[in-house]
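Q: How would the C-alpha coordinates look for this protein?
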Amino acid sequence: MSREFTLTQLRYFAAVAQEQSVTVAAARLRISQSALSSAVAQLEAAMGTALFRRVPRRGVELTESGLRLLHESLPLLEAAEELPARVRQDHQAPAGRLVVGVYEPIASLRLPEIVAAFGRRHPAVEVSIVEGDQEFVRQSVLSGGCEIALLYSMGLGAGLRTEVLEELPPHVIVGERHALATRTRPVSLRELADEPLVLLDLPHTREYLLGLFDVVGVVPRVRHRLTGYETVRSFVAHDGYAVLNRRLPHGTTHTRGRVVALDLAERLPPVQVVLAQAPDARPTRRAAAFADVCRQVVRV
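A: Here is the predicted structure in C-alpha coordinate form.
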Protein backbone atom coordinates (compact mmCIF):
# COMPACT_ATOMS: atom_id res chain seq x y z
CA MET A 1 0.00 0.00 0.00
CA SER A 2 1.31 3.45 -0.91
CA ARG A 3 2.04 5.86 1.90
CA GLU A 4 1.29 9.55 1.95
CA PHE A 5 3.86 11.94 0.51
CA THR A 6 4.29 15.69 0.72
CA LEU A 7 4.88 18.53 -1.69
CA THR A 8 8.13 19.26 0.13
CA GLN A 9 9.35 15.75 -0.64
CA LEU A 10 8.42 16.23 -4.30
CA ARG A 11 10.22 19.57 -4.39
CA TYR A 12 13.35 18.03 -2.87
CA PHE A 13 13.13 15.10 -5.30
CA ALA A 14 12.87 17.46 -8.29
CA ALA A 15 15.95 19.39 -7.12
CA VAL A 16 18.04 16.20 -6.89
CA ALA A 17 16.77 15.09 -10.30
CA GLN A 18 17.70 18.39 -11.92
CA GLU A 19 21.12 18.66 -10.27
CA GLN A 20 21.86 14.92 -10.49
CA SER A 21 23.63 15.33 -7.17
CA VAL A 22 22.41 15.20 -3.57
CA THR A 23 25.25 17.48 -2.50
CA VAL A 24 24.51 20.19 -5.07
CA ALA A 25 20.75 19.96 -4.53
CA ALA A 26 21.15 20.28 -0.75
CA ALA A 27 23.26 23.41 -1.20
CA ARG A 28 20.67 24.88 -3.58
CA LEU A 29 17.82 24.12 -1.15
CA ARG A 30 19.89 25.25 1.85
CA ILE A 31 19.24 22.09 3.83
CA SER A 32 21.54 19.34 5.08
CA GLN A 33 22.37 16.38 2.88
CA SER A 34 21.02 14.02 5.52
CA ALA A 35 17.66 15.82 5.59
CA LEU A 36 17.47 15.71 1.80
CA SER A 37 18.42 12.04 1.62
CA SER A 38 15.82 11.23 4.27
CA ALA A 39 13.09 13.08 2.35
CA VAL A 40 13.94 11.24 -0.87
CA ALA A 41 13.96 7.89 0.96
CA GLN A 42 10.52 8.65 2.41
CA LEU A 43 9.22 9.55 -1.05
CA GLU A 44 10.62 6.31 -2.49
CA ALA A 45 8.84 4.41 0.28
CA ALA A 46 5.60 6.23 -0.50
CA MET A 47 5.92 5.43 -4.21
CA GLY A 48 6.96 1.86 -3.54
CA THR A 49 9.90 1.99 -5.92
CA ALA A 50 13.43 3.32 -6.28
CA LEU A 51 13.57 6.77 -7.89
CA PHE A 52 17.34 7.14 -8.22
CA ARG A 53 20.35 4.96 -8.87
CA ARG A 54 23.88 5.89 -7.88
CA VAL A 55 26.42 6.49 -10.64
CA PRO A 56 30.08 6.20 -9.50
CA ARG A 57 31.97 9.50 -9.65
CA ARG A 58 28.96 11.27 -11.20
CA GLY A 59 26.27 11.37 -8.52
CA VAL A 60 22.79 9.98 -9.15
CA GLU A 61 20.46 9.46 -12.09
CA LEU A 62 16.75 8.82 -12.32
CA THR A 63 15.32 5.35 -12.73
CA GLU A 64 12.49 4.92 -15.24
CA SER A 65 10.02 5.31 -12.37
CA GLY A 66 11.85 8.41 -11.19
CA LEU A 67 11.72 9.96 -14.65
CA ARG A 68 7.97 9.36 -14.85
CA LEU A 69 7.52 10.94 -11.43
CA LEU A 70 9.58 13.98 -12.43
CA HIS A 71 7.47 14.56 -15.54
CA GLU A 72 4.28 14.33 -13.47
CA SER A 73 5.51 16.32 -10.49
CA LEU A 74 6.83 19.48 -12.20
CA PRO A 75 3.36 20.71 -13.30
CA LEU A 76 2.01 19.72 -9.88
CA LEU A 77 4.68 21.72 -8.05
CA GLU A 78 4.06 24.70 -10.31
CA ALA A 79 0.32 24.51 -9.63
CA ALA A 80 0.99 24.36 -5.88
CA GLU A 81 3.13 27.50 -6.09
CA GLU A 82 0.32 29.33 -7.91
CA LEU A 83 -2.53 28.07 -5.71
CA PRO A 84 -2.63 30.99 -3.21
CA ALA A 85 -2.85 33.54 -6.01
CA ARG A 86 -5.56 31.52 -7.75
CA VAL A 87 -7.59 31.37 -4.54
CA ARG A 88 -7.30 35.16 -4.22
CA GLN A 89 -8.17 35.42 -7.94
CA ASP A 90 -4.98 37.40 -8.50
CA HIS A 91 -3.36 37.32 -11.90
CA GLN A 92 -0.49 34.90 -11.50
CA ALA A 93 2.39 34.94 -13.95
CA PRO A 94 4.67 31.89 -14.22
CA ALA A 95 7.13 31.59 -11.33
CA GLY A 96 9.72 29.20 -9.94
CA ARG A 97 12.83 27.64 -11.48
CA LEU A 98 13.22 26.62 -15.12
CA VAL A 99 16.25 24.61 -16.25
CA VAL A 100 17.07 25.25 -19.91
CA GLY A 101 19.54 23.19 -21.93
CA VAL A 102 21.44 24.66 -24.87
CA TYR A 103 23.91 23.39 -27.46
CA GLU A 104 27.12 25.38 -27.02
CA PRO A 105 27.29 27.11 -30.47
CA ILE A 106 23.74 28.40 -29.96
CA ALA A 107 24.38 29.52 -26.38
CA SER A 108 26.39 32.66 -27.04
CA LEU A 109 24.49 33.64 -30.16
CA ARG A 110 20.80 33.25 -29.38
CA LEU A 111 20.34 32.49 -25.71
CA PRO A 112 21.33 35.86 -24.16
CA GLU A 113 18.64 37.69 -26.15
CA ILE A 114 16.05 35.01 -25.40
CA VAL A 115 16.77 34.91 -21.66
CA ALA A 116 16.77 38.72 -21.42
CA ALA A 117 13.40 38.95 -23.18
CA PHE A 118 12.01 36.14 -21.03
CA GLY A 119 13.25 37.85 -17.86
CA ARG A 120 11.51 41.09 -18.77
CA ARG A 121 8.21 39.30 -19.32
CA HIS A 122 8.45 36.75 -16.52
CA PRO A 123 10.65 38.19 -13.76
CA ALA A 124 9.39 35.67 -11.20
CA VAL A 125 10.98 32.75 -13.07
CA GLU A 126 14.58 31.82 -12.23
CA VAL A 127 16.30 30.49 -15.36
CA SER A 128 19.21 28.06 -14.93
CA ILE A 129 21.29 27.13 -17.98
CA VAL A 130 22.72 23.68 -18.79
CA GLU A 131 25.26 24.17 -21.59
CA GLY A 132 27.13 21.46 -23.48
CA ASP A 133 27.55 19.54 -26.70
CA GLN A 134 24.59 18.14 -28.61
CA GLU A 135 24.63 14.68 -27.05
CA PHE A 136 25.12 15.95 -23.49
CA VAL A 137 22.15 18.31 -23.71
CA ARG A 138 19.99 15.68 -25.41
CA GLN A 139 20.67 13.25 -22.58
CA SER A 140 19.99 16.00 -20.03
CA VAL A 141 16.51 16.49 -21.49
CA LEU A 142 15.78 12.76 -21.57
CA SER A 143 17.07 12.23 -18.02
CA GLY A 144 15.16 15.17 -16.54
CA GLY A 145 18.20 17.35 -15.97
CA CYS A 146 16.58 20.15 -17.95
CA GLU A 147 12.96 20.78 -18.88
CA ILE A 148 13.39 22.37 -22.30
CA ALA A 149 16.37 22.84 -24.62
CA LEU A 150 17.62 24.63 -27.71
CA LEU A 151 19.45 22.19 -29.98
CA TYR A 152 20.39 21.54 -33.56
CA SER A 153 18.30 18.89 -35.29
CA MET A 154 21.25 16.64 -36.13
CA GLY A 155 21.65 13.39 -34.22
CA LEU A 156 18.53 13.78 -32.10
CA GLY A 157 16.91 10.51 -33.15
CA ALA A 158 13.26 9.89 -32.29
CA GLY A 159 13.54 10.27 -28.53
CA LEU A 160 12.56 13.94 -28.17
CA ARG A 161 9.54 16.09 -28.95
CA THR A 162 10.84 18.92 -31.13
CA GLU A 163 9.67 22.09 -32.83
CA VAL A 164 11.70 23.77 -35.58
CA LEU A 165 12.50 27.44 -34.92
CA GLU A 166 14.78 28.25 -37.86
CA GLU A 167 17.02 26.75 -40.54
CA LEU A 168 20.70 27.66 -40.89
CA PRO A 169 22.45 26.90 -44.19
CA PRO A 170 26.20 26.27 -44.04
CA HIS A 171 28.70 28.93 -45.05
CA VAL A 172 32.49 29.33 -45.09
CA ILE A 173 34.68 31.65 -43.03
CA VAL A 174 38.24 32.67 -43.92
CA GLY A 175 40.69 35.15 -42.44
CA GLU A 176 40.55 38.74 -43.67
CA ARG A 177 43.96 38.27 -45.37
CA HIS A 178 42.93 35.08 -47.15
CA ALA A 179 42.97 35.17 -50.97
CA LEU A 180 39.20 34.61 -51.05
CA ALA A 181 38.35 37.23 -48.43
CA THR A 182 37.35 39.83 -51.02
CA ARG A 183 35.33 37.38 -53.13
CA THR A 184 31.86 38.75 -53.90
CA ARG A 185 30.44 35.62 -55.51
CA PRO A 186 29.85 32.29 -53.72
CA VAL A 187 32.76 29.92 -53.16
CA SER A 188 32.71 26.18 -53.81
CA LEU A 189 34.00 23.59 -51.36
CA ARG A 190 35.97 22.18 -54.29
CA GLU A 191 38.00 25.40 -54.41
CA LEU A 192 38.97 24.81 -50.79
CA ALA A 193 39.93 21.14 -51.13
CA ASP A 194 43.66 21.85 -50.75
CA GLU A 195 43.25 24.42 -47.97
CA PRO A 196 43.64 23.49 -44.28
CA LEU A 197 40.23 22.95 -42.63
CA VAL A 198 39.60 23.96 -39.02
CA LEU A 199 36.86 21.54 -37.95
CA LEU A 200 34.30 22.18 -35.21
CA ASP A 201 34.76 18.74 -33.69
CA LEU A 202 31.69 18.12 -31.53
CA PRO A 203 29.50 14.99 -31.42
CA HIS A 204 27.10 14.94 -34.41
CA THR A 205 28.46 18.30 -35.60
CA ARG A 206 31.60 16.71 -37.04
CA GLU A 207 29.53 14.09 -38.88
CA TYR A 208 27.28 16.76 -40.33
CA LEU A 209 30.15 19.01 -41.45
CA LEU A 210 32.25 16.22 -42.95
CA GLY A 211 29.10 14.93 -44.64
CA LEU A 212 28.86 18.21 -46.56
CA PHE A 213 32.18 17.40 -48.23
CA ASP A 214 30.88 13.92 -49.08
CA VAL A 215 27.93 15.52 -50.88
CA VAL A 216 30.32 17.55 -53.03
CA GLY A 217 32.74 14.64 -53.51
CA VAL A 218 35.70 16.30 -51.78
CA VAL A 219 38.02 14.96 -49.08
CA PRO A 220 39.00 17.90 -46.82
CA ARG A 221 42.47 18.42 -45.36
CA VAL A 222 41.65 18.66 -41.65
CA ARG A 223 44.38 20.74 -39.97
CA HIS A 224 42.79 21.26 -36.54
CA ARG A 225 39.93 19.61 -34.64
CA LEU A 226 38.57 22.02 -32.04
CA THR A 227 35.53 21.90 -29.76
CA GLY A 228 35.00 25.64 -29.19
CA TYR A 229 33.00 27.70 -31.68
CA GLU A 230 34.95 30.89 -30.94
CA THR A 231 38.22 28.94 -30.89
CA VAL A 232 37.52 27.77 -34.43
CA ARG A 233 36.87 31.34 -35.56
CA SER A 234 40.04 32.60 -33.87
CA PHE A 235 42.18 29.93 -35.57
CA VAL A 236 40.65 30.69 -38.97
CA ALA A 237 41.45 34.39 -38.51
CA HIS A 238 45.11 33.38 -38.91
CA ASP A 239 45.07 30.31 -41.15
CA GLY A 240 42.76 28.00 -43.08
CA TYR A 241 39.00 28.00 -43.29
CA ALA A 242 35.97 26.57 -41.52
CA VAL A 243 32.42 25.61 -42.41
CA LEU A 244 29.83 26.83 -39.91
CA ASN A 245 26.09 27.41 -39.78
CA ARG A 246 25.55 30.32 -37.41
CA ARG A 247 26.53 33.48 -39.29
CA LEU A 248 27.64 36.31 -36.99
CA PRO A 249 26.96 39.96 -37.87
CA HIS A 250 30.64 40.83 -37.36
CA GLY A 251 34.07 39.45 -38.17
CA THR A 252 35.83 40.06 -34.86
CA THR A 253 37.42 37.18 -32.95
CA HIS A 254 39.10 36.75 -29.58
CA THR A 255 42.45 37.41 -31.26
CA ARG A 256 43.59 40.45 -33.23
CA GLY A 257 42.53 38.78 -36.48
CA ARG A 258 39.17 39.00 -38.21
CA VAL A 259 37.18 36.54 -40.31
CA VAL A 260 35.04 37.00 -43.40
CA ALA A 261 31.89 34.96 -44.11
CA LEU A 262 31.38 33.64 -47.66
CA ASP A 263 28.31 32.04 -49.21
CA LEU A 264 28.67 28.53 -50.59
CA ALA A 265 28.03 27.86 -54.27
CA GLU A 266 26.60 24.40 -53.53
CA ARG A 267 23.10 23.96 -52.14
CA LEU A 268 23.88 21.89 -49.07
CA PRO A 269 21.66 20.59 -46.26
CA PRO A 270 21.02 23.19 -43.53
CA VAL A 271 20.75 22.47 -39.84
CA GLN A 272 17.61 23.31 -37.93
CA VAL A 273 17.45 25.03 -34.55
CA VAL A 274 14.81 23.21 -32.53
CA LEU A 275 13.06 23.46 -29.19
CA ALA A 276 13.27 20.04 -27.54
CA GLN A 277 11.43 18.44 -24.63
CA ALA A 278 11.12 14.91 -23.32
CA PRO A 279 8.35 13.03 -25.17
CA ASP A 280 6.34 12.18 -22.05
CA ALA A 281 6.83 15.50 -20.24
CA ARG A 282 3.83 17.61 -19.30
CA PRO A 283 5.04 21.17 -19.99
CA THR A 284 4.84 23.60 -17.10
CA ARG A 285 3.59 27.13 -17.67
CA ARG A 286 7.21 28.25 -17.25
CA ALA A 287 8.36 26.03 -20.11
CA ALA A 288 5.42 27.03 -22.31
CA ALA A 289 6.16 30.72 -21.70
CA PHE A 290 9.84 30.18 -22.52
CA ALA A 291 8.90 28.43 -25.76
CA ASP A 292 6.69 31.40 -26.71
CA VAL A 293 9.57 33.83 -26.18
CA CYS A 294 11.91 31.61 -28.24
CA ARG A 295 9.46 31.67 -31.14
CA GLN A 296 9.11 35.44 -30.97
CA VAL A 297 12.84 36.18 -30.69
CA VAL A 298 14.21 33.62 -33.15
CA ARG A 299 11.59 34.13 -35.84
CA VAL A 300 11.88 37.94 -35.95
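Residues 248 and 289 are 27 Å apart (CA to CA).

The radius of gyration is 23 Å.

Upvote if useful.
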